[in-house]
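Question:
Write out your own:
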Amino acid sequence: METRPAFDEIMGLSGDKPPRPELAALGRWLENTSGDELRRRQESAEAAFRQLGITFAVYGETEAAERIIPFDIVPRVFLHEEWTRLSEGLVQRVEAINAFLDDIYGEQRILSEGVLPADLVLTNPQFRPEIAGMRPPHGVWAHICGIDLVRTGPDDFFVLEDNARTPSGVSYMLENREAMLRLCPELFRSYRVEAVDSYPDRLLETMKSVAPRGTGTPVCVVLTPGHYNSAYYEHSFLADSMGVELVEAADLEVDDDIVWMRTVAGRVRVDVIYRRVDDDYLDPLVFRPDSMLGVPGLIAAYAAGNVAIINAPGNGIADDKAIYSYMPEIVRFYSGGEVKLPNVETWRCREPEALRYTLDHLGELVVKLVDGSGGYGMLVGPTASRDEVERFRAALIAEPHRYIAQPTLALSTVPTLTDTGVSPRHVDFRPFVLTGANGVQVVPGGLTRVALKEGSLVVNSSQGGGTKDSFVLVPDGPVQNMGPSGMTQTMGGMRQEQN
């Protein structure tokens, strides 16, 4: 069980005292807005999401196509000073991830100098020897990163995992903000909040910046596996928001190491592909030969330097949770400085001493597959049944290299609307970091995921979690205003209209 009370991000360490001074206005809003009114607004937002088709699928569930991720009307708030510290740590970490990927598919200095065990990388299923020696345009590997964070105290933030393949959730960040502006405008009169609606423009700018050809306007596309994919709404949403084509494999062909898009007006050369297709299925000539989702010859075009692929093939090695356990060493190796955003303490079960500790404390720990995601393949010891613990014990003994273990943290809570009223629920956070030829930028917001079940620490949507809007406060400047014909947001002195 949790060893100490959870830190509530509005109320502090004790729920029986006034809200943290900077968040007093949010505390008053919660006190003065009835539960029925909060529920009405929340249901209105979810109805709009359903009408827009903002759904996700849980594979193996027949009803999943119509499911929306539950939305919570109570926002999460980051103070300006908190966000500044987080941003510095995120930039440092993503720069290290890019340097690490560039190194292991190139000179492999980090292996030759013994910072990481070579077998941990070279025998890892996510390491792609097929692309060793290749270098992406402008040397950028991880163009879009989602770095999952947890908080345990006023100043205590930890990285839970890195997502450098195809991180999802940004459409929920944008739609959650749209809903809050429409349904809770009074909060934006109380707080100056950084705008997030520029994300599609930032993403398109990032894509264009890494185009391999230096002349003309780069042609960018979003490559989707198709409408059966769990994140298809996000694929189509982002393509539409950026004003680029959403394509499937059949829309593309490779001729003489150049990627072309088939259109009714003829073939158009493609410079940048934001792919939402996993490596295994990306090119049947290089990876899985039975893939119907990939484009034959795509990797050859990439190797020839004729197309940029976002994120770069081979990035999955940076998502691996065993590699994650070495991220402090990786950051120090490439940055030459101390880590600004620490990891959660982690035991690598491939190491005999760590395995013994994990087996001896299995009921107290969180155990994860090194290549797992979505809350699957995970044991939360304090809430697991005896049978679940024993099944994991057998799995650990049989294949210890497939697992890591971490302490059960007292994750921070945020007030959340439940069936019985507003109550604290545990949250994590996924900020989005973009890296292009012109540098790294942290989007001033992100996806807050909330564990809607009382006491639960599992926030994943596939496991019953929901989402919240994430406010990043600015110290001064104009407040976001509501206009009669839509929403007007301000950021950096530049007005941005949404129609």
Summary: The chain has 15 helices and 23 strands. The radius of gyration is 23 Å.
